[in-house]
């Protein structure tokens, strides 16, 4: 991928490093087995933002050895882990598309998709084992959080729990944990301090939450040609994303307006398998202030992430970390 932030030599260096990571990733998802290789390499070949390995490389610029082989291994590990989680997510969600191509489960079937994801998790574990026992433990904890986030999302809100609080917890575990690990690994495996690694982990988790809240806005606001999926797909699948959760919170507090009440009525009673009905709800949400409220929430998480960077010495790298956080929300897809 081409790094779209940072200045001069920093951006050029990161682009060169990402080229190395991309070649390593291609090798890790490939197998000399014509039955296995098409499935394990499917999503990596489809592309993607590669935000997690990029963050590993960027955070590594804060340590004395940014080109250490362990940094590259860690960058590949986080992308392998992310890819594997997508295979499993698409099986659970019965998603037909991913990254503009048929999902692995749509192309190969559920069993193959699950096993391909397992193989990629295994490859990530093998690489992490090469970095030592502590690396294995750190990544196992990250993987545990990923699974807990998926479990919480699947089981749903428990009685008496705030739906919005539950949703944020899911985002922290499912997305924030791996982005936090990416930032931490970059510092640790370039020889940076433990204290700085923890600062970057806190920053990364907040960026991850901001990224997912921004996704909820993008799901409503963007057009299908840009994102590769129908606007309002999450709503059609019965998922209450942040704009809807905020409307339900307003209804509970007695502060919802008539337009918001109409949106909730449509969500609760209309057949959203109908393109016309879904389009009507999406159009109403686009015009409702709750979408801007959701955007402000995402920006607040970015601001919190940036606040953690005050403990990072001023430099082009810190500026690029600020840009990275803002890029998480200022995007079209």
What does this structure look like?
By secondary structure, the chain is an all-alpha fold. It folds into two domains: 9-192, Farnesyl Diphosphate Synthase, CATH 1.10.600.10; 194-333, Farnesyl Diphosphate Synthase, CATH 1.10.600.10. Helices cover 73% and strands 1% of the residues. It contains 17 helices and two strands. It has helices at residues 8-29, 37-40, 42-45, 51-60, 69-93, 104-108, 110-129, 133-155, 163-188, 194-221, 224-227, 233-236, 242-253, 258-269, 275-287, 290-308, 316-327; strands at residues 97-98, 101-102. It has a two-stranded antiparallel sheet. A hairpin with a 2-residue loop joins strand 1 (97-98) and strand 2. The longest helix has 28 residues, at 194-221. The model has no long low-confidence stretch (mean pLDDT 93).
User: H/E order of the elements?
Assistant: HHHHHEEHHHHHHHHHHHH
Structural class given helices, strands, pairing?
mainly alpha
Q: Shape, please?
A: globular
CATH topology of the largest domain: Farnesyl Diphosphate Synthase
User: Per DSSP, what share of the residues sits in E-state strands of 2 or more residues?
Assistant: under 5%
- The termini sit apart by 15 Å
The strands making up the biggest β-sheet line up spatially as: 1-2
Q: What's the mean pLDDT score?
A: 93
Tally of alpha and pi helices: 17
Task: Please give the CATH architecture of the largest domain.
Answer: Orthogonal Bundle
Indicate the CATH class of the largest domain. Answer: Mainly Alpha
Number of strands: 2
- Which range best describes the helical content: under 10%, 10-25%, 25-40%, 40-55%, 55-70% or over 70%? over 70%
Write out the CATH superfamily name of the largest domain.
Answer: Farnesyl Diphosphate Synthase
**Which sheet architecture does the biggest sheet show?**
2 strands, antiparallel
Low-confidence stretches: none
- List the domain count as a whole number: 2
Computed over alpha carbons, the radius of gyration is: 20 Å
């Amino acid at each position: 991928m081409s790094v779209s932030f940072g200045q001069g030599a920093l951006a050029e260096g990161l682009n060169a490093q990402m080229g190395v990571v991309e070649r390593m990733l291609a090798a890790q998802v490939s197998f000399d087995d014509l039955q296995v290789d098409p499935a394990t390499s499917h999503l990596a070949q489809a592309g993607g933002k590669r935000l997690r390995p990029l963050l590993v490389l960027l955070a590594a610029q804060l340590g004395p050895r940014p080109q250490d082989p362990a940094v590259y291994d860690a960058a590949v590990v986080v992308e392998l882990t992310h890819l594997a989680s997508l295979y499993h997510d698409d099986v659970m969600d019965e998603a037909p598309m991913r990254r503009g191509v048929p999902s692995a489960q749509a192309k190969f079937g559920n069993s193959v998709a699950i096993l391909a994801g397992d193989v990629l998790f295994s490859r990530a574990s093998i690489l992490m084992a090469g970095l030592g026992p502590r690396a294995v433990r750190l990544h196992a904890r990250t993987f545990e959080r990923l699974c807990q986030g998926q479990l919480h999302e699947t089981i749903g809100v428990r009685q008496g729990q705030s739906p919005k609080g539950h949703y944020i917890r899911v985002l922290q575990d499912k997305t924030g944990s791996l982005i936090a690990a990416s930032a931490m690994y970059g510092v640790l495996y370039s020889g940076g301090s433990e204290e700085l690694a923890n600062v970057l982990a806190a920053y990364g988790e907040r960026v991850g939450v901001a990224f997912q809240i921004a996704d909820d806005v993008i799901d409503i606001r963007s057009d299908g040609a840009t994102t590769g999926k129908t606007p309002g797909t999450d709503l059609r699948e019965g998922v209450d994303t942040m704009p809807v959760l905020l409307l339900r919170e307003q209804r509970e507090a007695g502060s919802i307006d008539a337009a918001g009440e109409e949106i909730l009525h449509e969500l609760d009673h209309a057949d959203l398998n109908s393109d016309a009905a879904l389009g009507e709800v999406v159009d109403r949400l686009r015009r409702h202030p709750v979408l801007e409220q959701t955007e402000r929430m995402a920006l607040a998480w970015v601001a919190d992430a940036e606040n953690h960077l005050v403990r990072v010495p001023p430099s082009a790298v810190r500026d690029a970390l600020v840009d990275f956080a803002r890029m998480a929300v200022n995007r079209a897809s």
